[in-house]
Amino acid sequence: MYDVVIVGAGPAGSTAALIATRLGLRTVVIDRLAPPREKPCGGGLTPRSWKLLNALGIDYPVYGACNEIETRAAGYKIALKKEPILVTRRPDFDYAILKQSNAEFIRDQVLGVRGNTVVGRNGEYSGRVIIGADGATSTVARSIGINNFRGERSHAIAYMTIAKGPPSDKCVIDFDAVINAVKRVGYAWIFPVGEGANIGAGVGWGKWIDLREFVSEYAERAGYKPGAVLGHPLSLGHVRGLGRGNVILAGEAAGLVDATTGEGIYYAVASGVAAAVATYTALKIWRREKYAVDIYRELVRPYVEEVKKTRALSRIAKAIGTRKPVVKLLGKRLVELYSKVYTGEATYSLLLKPVEKL
Asked: Coiled-coil annotation: which residues (predicted)?
């Protein structure tokens, strides 16, 4: 029997594996795809994301840096030159963390969890603690009776492409392009990646829209040649549960994603660390695996509270985002504050202050 069985080899699962093996836990990671595997994602590492990775001593690949972040909303363009957003590629990023963990890896499609056993299509894997880090449509979460995924009510849809084009050191966050094109609140992005860019767009709070054609055309208008366009659901900060019994949910499997920006790497890494530490504390200090979820719940409480705030802000954005007179009235100040949040200069409590006064 393993000390911990981790389902999912994304940032949450791979980070949990890395910390668990450093703590001396017998660890296995299971994923249905062999790494490196593609995952639709902007690949932006915000300052607090790369600072956390650096503090943990984790090496990670970087293919671009945004020394200027330009936000386009309500007809305004706000440019910030602060600490950079670094840009990675998810296949390489996830795999780099997994390799550093030196954990055992098994390729299998997980069908569910039964007690201390993860049931796969090709085998069964027993662990004293199980960490479900299997993303937005988590099989592990559903198998323990927690349904964080409720389609368009709980998740947005996003599409991205790796496009060839001119190198740059500027990131673009463009709300206007999506709102003007589809009359729905969302945003497009351009993040530089080597000789090109990661370009994409997403919308939430309503029926999912196929944005593949929009992403290709948006890339072309920006002077890039788009590649294949990939899509994936993305949590709107929908946290219904963090685990049950001896099963912990981490990253997007728990709904830990910023609902206003879609940024999930920070919460994935942070919750992966918390899951591993909770597992170690329960097994090696208290010697009771049933304590793992309660310990984990306390460790991630600040992240859960922050994610709830992003969900509330995302709902407000949906309500006013397409009302141009309202957006014009509030827009510049909110865009400035919002830009400071995703660069790590401010917190969501600051962003909520002008909203609370309305």
From this structure: none
Segment 131-182, tens digit of pLDDT: 999 999 999 999 999 988 888 889 999 999 999 999 999 999 998 999 999 9
Separation in Å, CA 247 to CA 27, 104, 267, 272, 353: 15, 19, 18, 13, 37
Asked if residues 290 and 273 have their Cβ atoms less than 8 Å apart, the reply is no
Residue 144 falls inside a structural domain: yes
pLDDT in tens, 258-282: 988 888 999 999 999 999 999 999 9
* Domain annotation covers residue 34: yes
Instruction: Write the DSSP string, 11-73.
Output: HHHHHHHHHHHHTT--EEEEESSPSS-------EE-HHHHHHHHHTT------EEESEEEEEE
Give domain status of residue 98, yes or no.
yes
Contact 80, 68 (CB under 8 A): yes
Alpha-helix residue ranges (DSSP H) falling in the chain:
11-22, 47-55, 90-101, 139-143, 175-182, 212-221, 265-280, 292-299, 301-320, 324-342, 348-356
> What pLDDT is stored for residue 354 in this prediction?
43
Residue 76's identity, in one-letter code, is Y
Which residue range is the domain that position 49 belongs to? 2-66+85-150+236-315
Query: Is the pLDDT score of 342 beyond 90?
Result: no
pTM for this structure?
0.92
Closest CA to 306 of 234, 203, 236, 237: 237
Provide the pairing of β-strand 155-164 with 229-235: antiparallel
Region of 237 please: left (phi>0), alpha (psi -120 to 50) or beta. left
d(Cα 206, Cα 256) in Å, to the nearest integer? 20
214 three-state secondary structure:
helix
Cβ-contact 102, 71 below 8 angstroms: no
358 has a pLDDT exceeding 50: no
DSSP designation for 84: P
β 27-31/104-107 pair status:
parallel
